[in-house]
Amino acid sequence: MKPLKSKTSAAVLMLVSCMLLILILPAATGTALSSQPSASKPVQAASKFVFHYRTPYFPTRLTASSAWADFKAADYGSIGETVKAKPVNGDLGLVASDSEDGRWIPLWYTTAAAKAIAETEPAYVTLNPNAKLSLAPGSALKWAPPQPGGKLVALAKWKDWTGVLISPQTWMSGGTVYRPVLFWVSSASISSMTMIPAGVLSKDSDVPTELARNMTEIWLQKGEDQARVQKLLGTPDATEHSANLAELGDPMRMGTTWRYERQLAQFTVSFSKEGKLEAWKWILPADRMLQMNVYSGDNYTLTYDFRSMPAGLTLNAKPVWRNQGDLNYSYLIGATNEVLLLNGDDGGFSGMHHDSSIYAVDRASGRKLWQIDAGFGMLDAFLDESSDTAAIYTEYDAKKNIYEHHVRELNLKDGKLLWEKLLPEGHQLQMYAAKDVILLHQVADSAQASGVLTVLDRATGKQLWNQSLRGNQQILRTDSEDPYILIQEGLTLKALDPKDGTKVWSVSGRGDLNQDPQTHPYYSYGTIHLPLEPWQSSRWFLIGNAWMLLDTESGRVLAQYPWSEQERFETTNEQRYILVQRSGGSEYFDASNIKETSLYDVFEQRVIWTLHGKAVSGAFDSTRLYVVLNGLPAAVDRSTGNVLWQMPVTTTQSSSPYTLDEMAKSRYAVLSKTVVIGYGSDMLVLRKEDGGLLGRIRDNLLDFSEAHYRRGIEGLLNMSGGELYVGSSNGGLARYQQTELDRLLEMMK
């Protein structure tokens, strides 16, 4: 752990840039021999030290006999930070920390002399044969260079000394990122110097990617000015909206992200509206293991993605419009021909949130029409296309900052309040809808208590009827188009007339009671319903030992599939076909160990074909089925199950059993000659013919918050009538025209 630190006001006002030296040849293995024994001299008697320059934390104490493998920074301290250290002698100080062994710092950076470090333009240099590298100017700890005669990069000066940084021999190990380490050499020991042109990541730069990465790890600090960053890195290849720059629970802060894109590596830097550097990320090919958002030391703003998929260059596709929300996640949850209804969520931990909202957007212009803020309470919404209204339930009043249960019926186009009910406190409530009514479910406080179902007239908000619910009676989620209220009691599902509660039909099953997995927060088992698709009267229900595809208007069983503890399925975009996942190694279903997936025809009751591993998000297109197969986009022959193509990867290993599986963030949108899918955090475009990656569409960060898998899969990427609607994890909702995307992508081919 990095020690606790605090800012000192004097040092905060002092802006000292760091320009350094980086070894660009591979470091030699072996021992670094000091030219002198380490001196023992007290530098500062106090137990507190203030950094006057960016200071490396060494995981072990450096000595004259240290191996070059030990020369690596586990973290860096910033200018103005104060650390507590045990009494020390010599060049190094042992910093108090939560770790068993502590960490070591070069004490010279806590002296006033370090304030005089001055930056220089970067330059390649070579050293004289007898040159030594010092821990700090004048330090007794000195070593021969790891590669005598090797080329270095000069970036800073202090009097007659030049700063030197050497890359760690192993810079990524066990999930820990190690950064270059600062050393110093007498300027008189430099035998030659060649200037490096500014803009080390610009298109015409010949600076190797590894060297450019080392430079950014030393150069860039939070708060750097945008102009300086551009001088150092060059003109970006793409500019787009940033992710939310605020801490969780704080108001959203948007900025600008620059992208520098090379064939095998990409680098992003994000700035505030004031033009100050806020965060940066390296996107690199994974070698042994896929890992996302790895950070260096305690610096959560400097991160690394080690991706196994190809790097996608940014495609400059412009949307018809883009709406910017005020919370991280924007999910489409409903629509009419004129209005889109969205759920905003700040992405709090474990499926919860500090802030949430329901808001409406004009479908033609992207203009926000109205918004209901729900704070950190529960909320739900049901759109009624026939009346152009939306029913909103909130359990918390964000304006009053108190818990109050409200149900409101709003005009969809302008948000005008049609009626409102303040509900009793002290009970957990759930809201559903059916044809012309709103359902309020007062959940039972205990297994012995009874719940209450109250039915309101949708037009007026007046109560039509209510009834008590026994402990084993469960109200199933229905929507505004559903003709009946659905209640499951044990092995029986019955439909009630919304007007008076009389039973219309019922269906019974056999066998044991089983928990319906369709409410699972991390998967989309069972029926998948996309918000732009027309309402369907049929969907799947688990009743006893059988899945039943029921027509909810008549109660007729259209198809059945036997329940198995080791199986789960999800629907495709064609009703008769489902993708059945079968796990291995246990009598119960294990989502991290899917043995095989079968395409099953529910009407003919037969398996069409079976694939090894897990296949989800199925979308048929003519003779093909597009799926995410074992975490990777793929195309399968719909008749034979032969895999036609699958996205190539550098590794299938990941840092957890779920990382690769979690890369897909949406279902497919199928265009004329390409398919689009949210993958990683990008909106990727793949060729239909061979799965070749054409690139990522700019300005779209696709992700969903924890425990909101279904909301993300159903609400982030939707297509209807030649229009593509894309939600995001930075508050944006964009509309694209398919014809324009097809035209741009045809040019890319």
UniProtKB/TrEMBL annotation:
Signal peptide: 1-27
Domain Pyrrolo-quinoline quinone repeat intervals: 406-646
UniProt xrefs under InterPro entries: PQQ_rpt_dom, Quinoprotein_ADH-like_sf, WD40/YVTN_repeat-like_dom_sf
Record carries keyword Signal: yes
UniProt keywords, alphabetically: Signal
Keyword Signal in record: yes
Xref: Gene3D superfamilies: Quinoprotein alcohol dehydrogenase-like superfamily, YVTN repeat-like/Quinoprotein amine dehydrogenase
Transmembrane segments: none
Family matches, as Pfam families: PQQ_2 (PF13360)
Protein name: PQQ-binding-like beta-propeller repeat protein
